[in-house]
């Protein structure tokens, strides 16, 4: 088709790729039509399967209606199961897209001497929503090239190198997540036993006030550094200056 | 009126008093309860004790009970009053030969109050010896002899 031809020519010119390869990349019209139809069929099939699974899950949990008091655990069971299913589905989609993209990414990048960004293959697949399967699959050449180049650098920053450490799904079978209505841990310790008071007692507070008053006294007063609580022996005598002009001058202190 | 003021009966109690009184002038009266001049001094001390309660703590010591301190402070005449602040001995120049203690009684209550105030202010400013505000005529006269010379 003419637009397809023109776009590939432009792409080749912009990226200065080998002209010989361009001919090979041109997708003939018939092939394109066939591919589009196959794509639609695959997509319909996939959506049908997903809906079937969801209906299966809800039908399993709807029957027990005679226990209204159990509504909360039933909903959470439903949501937990759905969460697990969705996680599984996402994972499979990611893998499919990754495999497909890798094939075509390597073809484009190796042969057209573009900026080597192999993370592009992994990038877009993780960040795009799973419903974008039909967009990511290797179809017309005009879409993946320029669009990927624009979004490439940003996504590469997010995914390359410093991958976040995954420490496991925290909310499993127990209902202890904050969004599930569990009590916060600092409120659940009601059976603590002795009621320990937090903070200083009344006597300590009074002593603290006395100390504050002490700080306000002049610093150079007599005996400011006198230790009032020191244990002295029986033969201790206070410092008493001499009475007569007998000893040295410093003894008269 | 010596029964109005607290008494210290042994050396350990005197030590305790010297070490524990904080940020106030410690007044130790050395004498005997039955001596005439001592009674006069005790009267003045008792009457002013309440007004000076924020600045001073007053104790009575019988010289017979604490021979150690009687010798250490060289107490030859009674009553003798010794002043301490935060465990440190305070000297006062009264115009008399002995600056380390006040010998005799005071003429008026106001004299004693003035003296305590001067000692307190001096101690707060870090002075170990202060000058007495009492009129020298009101200070009791005595002869300070060295071992009977």
TrEMBL record, chain A:
Q: Where is this region: Disordered?
A: 125-148
Q: Which InterPro entries match?
A: CCDC84-like
Q: Which domain of life is it from?
A: Eukaryota
The record's section on PANTHER family has: CENTROSOMAL AT-AC SPLICING FACTOR, COILED-COIL DOMAIN-CONTAINING PROTEIN 84
Could you identify this protein by its name? CCD84 protein
Which species is listed as the source?
Cettia cetti
TrEMBL record, chain B:
This entry carries the following GO cellular component terms, namely: spliceosomal complex; U4/U6 x U5 tri-snRNP complex; U5 snRNP
The entry's keywords: Cell cycle, mRNA processing, mRNA splicing, Nucleus
Q: Name one GO biological process term.
A: mRNA splicing, via spliceosome
Q: Which residues cross the membrane?
A: none
The answer, when asked if Nucleotide-binding is one of the entry's keywords, is: no
The UniProt subunit note reads as follows:
Homodimer. Interacts with the U5-102 kDa protein subunit of the spliceosome.
This protein is called Thioredoxin-like protein 4B
Species? Cettia cetti
- Source organism phylogeny: Eukaryota, Metazoa, Chordata, Craniata, Vertebrata
């Amino acid at each position: 088709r003419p637009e397809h031809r023109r776009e590939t020519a432009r792409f080749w010119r912009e990226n200065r790729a080998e002209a010989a390869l361009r001919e090979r990349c041109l997708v003939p019209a018939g092939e394109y039509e066939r591919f589009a139809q196959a794509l639609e069929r695959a997509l319909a099939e996939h959506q049908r399967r997903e809906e079937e699974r969801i209906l299966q899950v809800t039908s399993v949990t709807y029957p027990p209606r005679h226990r209204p008091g159990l509504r909360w655990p039933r909903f959470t069971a439903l949501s937990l199961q759905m969460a697990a299913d969705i996680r599984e589905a996402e994972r499979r989609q990611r893998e499919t897209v990754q495999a497909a993209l890798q094939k075509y990414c390597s073809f484009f990048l190796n042969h057209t001497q573009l900026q080597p960004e192999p993370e592009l293959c992994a990038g877009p697949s993780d960040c795009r929503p799973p419903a974008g399967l039909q967009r990511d699959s290797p179809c017309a050449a005009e879409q993946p090239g320029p669009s990927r180049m624009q979004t490439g650098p940003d996504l590469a920053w997010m995914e390359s190198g410093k991958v976040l450490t995954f420490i496991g799904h925290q909310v499993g079978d127990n209902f202890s997540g904050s969004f599930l209505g569990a009590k916060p841990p600092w409120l659940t310790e009601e059976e603590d036993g002795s009621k320990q008071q937090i903070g200083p007692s009344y006597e300590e507070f009074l002593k603290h006030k006395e100390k504050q008053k002490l700080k306000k006294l002049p610093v150079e007063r007599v005996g400011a550094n006198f230790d009032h609580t020191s244990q002295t022996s029986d033969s201790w005598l206070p410092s008493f200056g001499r009475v007569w002009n007998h000893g040295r001058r410093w003894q008269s202190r | 009126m010596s029964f109005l003021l607290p008494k210290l009966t042994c050396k350990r109690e005197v030590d305790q008093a010297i070490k524990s009184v904080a940020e106030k002038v410690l007044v130790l009266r050395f004498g005997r309860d039955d001596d005439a001049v001592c009674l006069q001094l005790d009267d003045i001390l008792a009457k002013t004790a309440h007004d000076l309660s924020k600045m001073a703590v007053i104790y009575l010591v019988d010289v017979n009970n604490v021979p150690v301190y009687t010798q250490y402070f060289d107490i030859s005449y009674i009553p003798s009053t010794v002043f301490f602040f935060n465990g440190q001995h305070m000297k006062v120049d009264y115009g008399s030969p002995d600056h380390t203690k006040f010998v005799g009684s005071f003429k008026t209550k106001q004299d004693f109050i003035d003296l305590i105030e001067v000692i307190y202010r001096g101690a707060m400013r870090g002075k170990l010896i202060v000058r007495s505000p009492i009129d020298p005529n009101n200070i009791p006269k005595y002869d300070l002899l060295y071992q009977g010379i």
